[in-house]
Specification:
8-stranded mixed β-sheet; elongated; alpha+beta
């Protein structure tokens, strides 16, 4: 078990609140996360194994072992004071179930969801896949009850059915929420396979810092990733990113713009020599040699990985759910004119403007036709034109600046959403840059171009403005096509100053 180095008040990172409130906050305090007892988590796994043994060897969709598993989890949660709902759906002619459990209290318009799929494949009992994630979040939920936690955010736990058949349960849940109810979910944490016997320590790559596969998650996903990285860093365990490849129940959430994160210890993929050197274990062998097989039993678990990941679940829940929300000092979502003005530059087209952007594509999305909120954003030439390059940035630098903003004393923060898109004819001379001008001028954010294709995708950024505290400042947003002619597009939305 990890030590109780977090048994006093812990500090929430700047990015944390942004993951769930739509705007990153200054560092705030949150209640210390508990140490989840490994023995309790393994007791749940033993129950899942016994249920499978009594029901044909599995806990699959439409089979009696699945419903028995859901009833076991529901019974524990009902006794602990949760409000539970067994949501039924039909797939492949069989009835499936999602178990939804709400903890009383917290802001009903600011929901943190924590989920894991409860079903196995038909070939075996599914103890690592995914009894491990199901047991870890169950024990975390029970600890919420034991501590009579009173979170600022509303906590909702979920155990999904028919994940193994294509995320059917979570898809049904998300699709059948009203637009209003869906918008209340500010973050989703997914835990699918967290006790692999030849474990790796992977965290979903919310900010696409790995540059692999599907791109970043919705704005706020990077902050969820960072919270989990903070936990593993606190216990000295290195982590690596894993792509949002659509293989688990975060999929329906991110497809609707809900930030997501979570951990994963590996499935049928083979551990490399470098990974074995990083984490131990056996190179050249699958992270889970019993993946989707009958041998995925209680013997197919790394206690160390299960223990660490169970504590990571609790750390994320306590850190995020009990954080004090920030105070918004100034904000602009660009739905009305707040007084941004162009600054003289050298660009001949694609000048910054506030407006409703039109989408363009060239080997992928370049100018995004969708905003983070509302219908308007700041965009480099909002029209699409006859081709992707008709209204992109050309000829140099385009800049736009905010009206004067009086910053409070203390440690104000700047947050905003952004994207930079370019073709493979770009270079590091091209950029998106955010600067703050007060008594001095400082670059607080920069994304450079490169000679590779980069599609537009909204991401979140934050900056510490403590050096400007108490001053009247302007925020300057710049984009450049500054070397040979290249396809460059950029956007900024939801600019906020927080204290």
């Amino acid at each position: 078990m990890r030590s109780r180095l977090l048994a006093v008040l812990t500090t929430v990172t700047l990015a944390l609140a942004g993951a769930l409130t739509g705007a990153p906050a200054q560092a705030e305090t949150a209640l210390a996360a508990p140490d989840i007892p490994l023995a309790n988590v393994k007791a749940h796994l033993a129950q899942f194994q016994s249920i499978a043994n009594a029901n044909g060897g599995n806990r699959a969709h439409g089979r009696p072992g699945y419903l028995a598993s859901a009833n076991y989890v529901r019974g524990r949660l009902d006794a602990a004071g949760f409000t539970t709902t067994l949501q039924s759906f039909t797939y492949n002619g069989a009835t499936g179930y999602n178990l939804i459990a709400d903890w009383p209290g917290g802001d009903p318009d600011d929901i943190l969801m924590i989920g894991a799929h409860l079903d196995s494949v038909t070939a075996g009992p599914g103890i690592n896949d995914n009894g491990s994630g199901s047991a870890a979040i169950l024990e975390t939920a029970l600890e919420v009850s034991r501590q009579s936690l009173q979170p600022a955010k509303h906590l909702r736990f979920a155990w999904w059915g028919a994940e193994e058949l294509g995320l059917r349960g979570s898809q049904y849940y998300v699709t059948n929420l009203s637009t209003t109810e869906r918008a209340k979910i500010k973050g989703y944490l997914n835990f699918d396979m967290v006790g692999s016997p030849n474990a790796g320590y992977f965290i979903y790559d919310g900010d696409n810092s790995d540059g692999v596969g599907s791109g970043p998650g919705p704005a706020g996903s990077a902050e969820l990733e960072r919270v989990l990285q903070d936990y593993f860093g606190s216990i000295g365990v290195p982590t690596r990113g894993t792509d949002f490849d659509g293989r688990s129940d975060y999929g329906p959430f991110i497809s609707r713009g809900i930030p997501a994160g979570g951990t994963f210890t590996g499935a049928e993929g083979v551990k490399s020599s470098a990974q074995a050197q990083l984490w131990g274990g056996t190179a050249g062998q699958a992270f889970d040699p019993c993946y989707h097989r009958a041998c995925d039993t209680t013997a197919n678990i790394s206690d160390t990985a299960l223990d660490r990941n169970s504590d990571a679940v609790a750390y994320a829940v306590w850190t995020i759910a009990t954080a004090t929300p920030p105070v918004v000092v100034w904000s602009d979502d660009f739905e009305t004119d707040r007084g941004w003005t162009p600054v003289a530059g050298t660009a001949t087209s694609g000048l910054w403007e506030r407006g409703d952007p039109e989408a363009t594509t060239s080997s992928g999305a370049k100018q995004l036709g969708t905003t983070v909120s509302g219908v308007n954003d700041l965009v480099t030439g909002r029209l699409a034109g006859s081709s992707a390059g008709a209204h992109d940035v050309d000829g140099g630098v385009t800049s736009i600046q905010s009206p004067p903003i009086t910053l409070p004393a203390g440690a104000p923060k700047l947050s905003f959403s952004w994207y930079l898109a370019h073709g493979s004819n770009s270079s590091s001379a091209d950029y998106l840059r955010v600067r703050v001008a007060g008594s001095t001028t400082s670059t607080v954010f920069q994304q450079l171009g490169a000679a590779t294709d980069r599609d537009g995708a909204w991401a979140a950024a934050t900056a510490d403005l403590s050096a400007f505290a108490g001053q009247s400042v302007r925020v300057l947003v710049e984009a450049a096509d500054a070397s040979t002619a290249s396809l460059v597009e950029a956007g900024v939305d939801d600019v906020k100053i927080l204290q």
